[in-house]
Write a structure and sequence with these properties.
Strand content: under 5%
Helix content: 55-70%
Distance between the termini: 31 Å
Low-confidence stretches: none
Largest sheet: 4 strands, mixed
Length: 658
């Protein structure tokens, strides 16, 4: 599988997001860069929302169903916008209009960030067909196959892969639905589609959203825009960390959309630079079109938006308090703010996972945790020096300027920093769980939030510092004596130098770490090279529709995702039926006419994959029914590669299953 096929698959996803999300952004009146950056958020909302709607109305999951729902929603939005404009006595300039020269700079900066991040992520993945050798990836890869098999990508249905009885009523499936559409559109394998999705999320959606948030808060300055694009490539904590840890694909998607939602939130509350011809009520519609996609990608990302938007709510409440001096108005403002606080507390409680999933311990002292935030050295140890200086400059200039936008940017940074320090160091367990339980009390999830606010604050710091330096007499004279072409070349050289300067040791370390987890080698923890080779031949031996037994902990369950053959246990966390337990416990002793053979017939299982005792987490889980298969006359060896073996079940005699 070539890189061309992977990038072709990524291009098809971008086209789908442009057609769905871009058309909705256009329908509500966004133009230019604002429409471009907002399109993915609308697109993910359409993908995740259509999946639920399609299940309700009986439509099979496909690109066509997404386009049909988008057409209906787009027509409604366009009609509402058209009716609104008809009521205006004065014609309105729609959306964001950028001067040609500024548009070129913005385009070049965005493309540069996209290319740098694309190559960084491709380097981390290693090969188009590689996949994360981690516990969570068993579910993610098999869930994509489950969607393709069932024609149902609803977040209300995907849990039935592991819980057929319906115990898992909701699981956020927007990421899985999007990946399944990539497979449908391009025909690539599931691992290639996953890697294409990762590149789109980390190299396109993320930097565009980061630049949008920066421009919404602080304007369209040249240095500001370029700095935001450069800094979006500077942090190993996002998007690389969530590929290195977990792997947390859905959460990565959700977080990449959060800057878009924050930009819309700022406009709703009248903060930052107003987009011409676009009132806060239309931005409210943009926000409402963004949040469902975030929630259906990962509820933890929705809570991230709630947390990071707190400074905006406070700034808005203060502004309203000052603008309204009557007692009645201030009572209403105080009441609304109190209701917001209560709603936020309830959201933190409702959206957090079960207690048994929130048991991650603290790992540092409070001073050490604060230092990791200030030095941007969390998780990987190596500090990103240029990014540190940019963020520190942003903090200083925010304290000097004390404008609503700068204080909001500083406030978002403090919220993210406090949450990180809380999760890694706070000794008060109840308070810690109340604040960070929605993120599983898990360090990497909160560490990944830091770049979302550091890019904007750092870009502001660079822009204000550059403006201050430009007022120095010597610099003014040099600038005045330099011809325009020379200033362009100097600016380009500084931008390239800045891009190179931020690609430091921390990023290299993160890339190496991800590469090690994605590589398929003789010692890979989930599926090693021998097992992978055998999985690529499984479809030659196992008829379509015939299920395969085996331990899900040793990677054999990925026969579902990789070989397109059903498995009895597509994940380690499963609803164990009586028939499944009989096979897991007694297959090696099955006898014709016995209970195990009856279970074999009911489950339509005909083969067993034996990948040995090595498990992805280094633990050991007993499945007595699969032990000593090599010496058993209940099975027949069909294929092998190294220590990996595929057996056919012969204990129950001739079967219609085979």
């Amino acid at each position: 599988m070539s890189w061309f096929e992977l990038f072709w698959a990524a291009a098809l996803l971008l086209l789908l997001l442009a057609v769905t999300g871009g058309s909705l952004a256009w329908a509500v009146g966004l133009r230019g860069f604002a429409a471009l950056a907002t399109a993915p958020a609308f697109g993910i909302t359409m993908i995740g929302g259509t999946a639920i709607v399609a299940q309700w109305v009986g439509l099979s999951w496909s690109v066509v169903s997404v386009l049909v729902v988008t057409l209906v929603v787009g027509a409604a939005l366009w009609g509402a916008r058209f009716a609104y404009l008809r009521t205006r006595s004065q014609p309105e300039e729609e959306g964001e209009r950028t001067r040609p020269r500024s548009a070129v700079r913005l385009l070049v900066a965005s493309i540069a960030a996209i290319l740098v991040l694309s190559f960084r992520l491709a380097d981390a993945v290693g090969l188009p067909t590689n996949f994360s050798q981690t516990f969570d990836n068993i579910f993610h890869l098999n869930a994509v196959r489950f969607i393709l098999d069932t024609g149902n990508a609803s977040s209300l249905a995907i849990g039935r892969m592991t819980n057929p009885g319906g115990a898992l009523g909701f699981y956020p499936a927007a990421w899985h639905g999007a990946v399944s559409l990539i497979v449908q559109l391009s025909g690539v394998s599931i691992p290639v589609a996953v890697n294409a999705m990762s590149i789109v999320v980390g190299a396109v959606i993320w930097p565009l959203g980061a630049v949008l948030l920066t421009r919404i808060l602080f304007g369209r300055g040249r240095v500001l825009t370029i700095s935001a694009a450069i800094l979006a490539t500077a942090f190993p904590l996002f998007p690389l960390l969530l590929l290195d840890y977990g792997v947390l694909y859905p959460y990565q998607l959700g977080l990449s959309l959060v800057p878009i939602a924050l930009a819309a939130t700022a406009q709703v509350f009248g903060l930052g630079q107003r987009v011409p011809g676009f009132s806060r009520w239309w931005w409210t519609l943009v926000l409402l079109g963004t949040l469902p996609g975030i929630a259906l990608a990962h509820p933890g990302a929705l809570v991230s938006w709630l947390a990071l938007s707190v400074p905006m709510v406070i700034a808005f409440a203060i502004a309203q308090w000052r603008a309204h001096s009557s007692a009645r108005s201030r009572v209403l403002i105080a009441g609304a703010f109190a209701a917001y606080i209560v709603a936020g507390i309830l959201a933190l409680k409702i959206l957090r996972p079960p207690l048994e999933a929130r048991g991650w311990p603290t790992t540092l002292s409070v001073p050490a945790a604060v230092w990791e935030v200030l030095s941007i050295s969390t998780w990987y140890g190596a500090a990103a020096l240029v990014a540190i200086l940019a963020v520190l400059a942003g903090i200083i200039w925010a304290l000097i300027a004390r404008t609503p936008a700068s204080l909001v940017a500083l406030g978002m940074y403090l919220v993210a920093a406090i949450l990180f320090v809380t999760v890694v160091a706070l000794p008060f367990g109840t308070l810690r769980d109340a604040l960070t339980g929605a993120w599983y009390n898990n360090t990497p999830r909160l560490a990944a939030m830091l770049p979302l606010v550091m890019v904007t604050l750092g870009a502001y710091g660079v822009a204000r510092t550059a403006s201050a330096l430009a007022t120095i007499p010597v610099v003014e004279r040099i600038r005045a004596s330099t011809p325009p072409s020379g200033r362009v070349l100097l600016g380009a050289a500084l931008a390239v130098g800045g891009m190179l300067a931020v690609q430091g040791a921390a990023l290299a370390q993160a890339t190496t770490s991800v590469s090690a987890l994605f590589a398929i080698t003789p010692t890979s923890p989930l599926v090693n090279s021998d097992e992978y080779a055998l999985l690529n031949r499984v479809d030659q031996h196992v008829p379509e529709g015939v299920a395969i037994a085996g331990s899900p902990w040793n990677g054999s369950s990925l026969a579902y995702a990789l070989a397109d053959r059903p498995v009895l246990m597509p994940h380690t966390v499963m609803e164990i039926t009586q028939e499944l337990e009989l096979v897991n416990e007694g297959l090696v002793g099955a006898k014709p006419g016995g209970a195990v053979c009856e279970a074999v017939e009911i489950l339509h299982v005909g083969f067993v994959l034996d990948f040995g005792s090595q498990e992805v987490h280094g633990a050991q889980h007993e499945f007595p029914g699969f032990e000593d298969l090599g010496t058993s006359d209940r099975v027949r060896l069909v294929d092998e590669q190294g220590e990996a073996r595929l057996y056919e079940i012969v204990a129950c005699g001739p079967s219609a299953n085979r």
